Amino acid sequence: MTEGTSPAPLTGVVVIDLGQIYQGPYATFLMARAGADVIKVEPLTGEPLRRRESEGVGPSFPLAFLNSNKRAVTLNLKEERGRELLRTMVERADVLLENFAPGVMDRLGVGARELMELNPRLVYASGTGFGLSGPDRDRLAMDVTIQASAGVMSITGTPEAPPMRAGPAMADFLGGVHLYGAVVTALFDRSRSGRGCLVEVAMQETVYPTLLSDLGLQYRAGGEQAPRRGNRHGAVAPYNVYATRDGHIALICTADSHWQSLLEAMGRQDLADDPRFSTTSLRAENEAATDEAVSEWAARLTREEAYEITRAHRIPSAPVRDLSEVTNDAHMHQRGMLQWVDHPTLGEVVLPNSPLRFHQLEQPDLNPSPVLGEHNKEIYGDWLGLSLQEISDLHDDGVI
């Protein structure tokens, strides 16, 4: 489908974004890149990521990435006049999203029930660690604690080492992706029913399905969890990361044809009739011997040589790249997923775009994240109709 000038899917949708850290802001980043008017509402000192900047930690790349294409205002929800301003915004909005601890918004008097009474078409989105109900509702939730409680750490690492967390903040971002999906689904339902609704996403519940791939099948087949395997698989071999002369390559043979191609690539056709390697299951049973053969071959090559050979033989493989290499990935830059931006606080920096592609649309410009309260006059004055004097008084009184 060719690109055109159709309006973005969420054009006209106004989102009040009370998100903080990663989960909520990633969901609203996806909305902003899909055309929504996202108004980021922060306390007077900024959300936690912004406060890290002011506390001398340095410019926050996650803050810059997650808040591209948003407008930003400050608002003190501990003041009744601040809550009144929020209610006024909600009356004109389509979505309010927050990822505070359960009950925070209710205690302030601006929870889902009250706000949806003001605006029955409102989609109120709540992102939490463990959900809005249940015995674990009030447990403190951060990415690492969710990884621990959801079982991720129990399967990550090597058998001889303690459980490990996955490197990136996977629970936060899985929560954000699902929260985006929940909001868009609710907006679709509203287009038919005319009514908004409360949607919620618990990070623990978004992480658990990732365990139910082959590990879940192993658990249900044997009644107990398989041990941590590091980079190995357990039921498939070769499936590992192999050292080369100047780095590492990840390689997997999921089919017998892959193995035969690998033997040709390695010049080891002598192993083609070896009964230890004749099937996937036998290669897995003889995992050490399988890995030894691949390791001996990889160790003689550079990372790129090993990758080019396996690529030419259509074997699933990839060089293990560091963040700098990925940030300069020519493929993702050409597709527009990565883009150089002149950011007001970070300088010239590469920022990611939304992975969601709408082929009938031109990719919108990637606008740098706003500074704290950058759009106070625009939102409170132009949108809500407050006078300059009223805005000044609210600022002087610590409301905005």
CATH topology type of the largest domain: Rossmann fold
Quickly name the level 1 CATH class of the largest domain.
Alpha Beta
Approximate helicity band? 40-55%
Strand order of the largest sheet: 3-2-1-4-5-6
Low-confidence spans: none
Observed structural traits:
400 residues, alpha/beta, Rossmann fold, formyl-coa transferase, domain 3, six-stranded parallel beta sheet, three-stranded antiparallel beta sheet, 18 helices, 11 strands, elongated
Word description of this protein:
With 400 residues, the protein is α/β, with parallel strands linked by helices. The chain folds into two domains: 14-209 and 334-396, 3-Layer(aba) Sandwich (Rossmann fold), CATH 3.40.50.10540; 239-324, formyl-coa transferase, domain 3. 41% of the residues lie in helices and 14% in strands. The chain contains 18 helices and eleven strands. It has a six-stranded parallel beta sheet with strand order 3-2-1-4-5-6, sandwiched between helices. A hairpin with a 3-residue loop joins strand 10 and strand 11. Helix 1 packs across helix 8. The chain is elongated and about 85 Å long. The two termini are 46 Å apart. 34% of the residues are buried.
